[in-house]
Specification:
The chain is of the alpha+beta class. It is built from 4 helices and 6 strands. A 6-stranded mixed β-sheet has the order 1-6-5-4-2-3.
Amino acid sequence: MQEIKYKDLPKEIKKDADLAQETAEKHAYPRDKNTKVGAVIISGDDRFLGANVKRWSWSNGTCAERMALDKAFFDDIKSIDRVVVYSTSDKKQGDSITSPCGPCREMLWEAIGETEQGDVDIYMVNKAKSSATIAKLSELLPLAFEAEKNN
């Protein structure tokens, strides 16, 4: 994993982070009103947006990453170039990042396996937009389970 100052991110990544922030602020439906998450999955020139939707029952909610991933697969993507995640969480300090939850990490891992590509970079931008953490998905999900393919 690598921490980088936000100002040092490439312009394209900053645009994706802005899009993730806008998605979180406009479309997230957090039950607790404090944690709004936006995610962007990038595949070529396409951007797939997701925002968290929290319900009283945790298992009935939707994570931003999962929403974006479902949209991407609905449009029949062939690869994932990167994932950008932004959170407006008031529960964390402005310099803390929000990373994808365990189930979202698993789903992303399965997705890159389905697309038969290599690892993917996950950019996690803090609320203050002062820094970002960049990690390979494999770093966030060590010893990931891989099902055998039925050909």
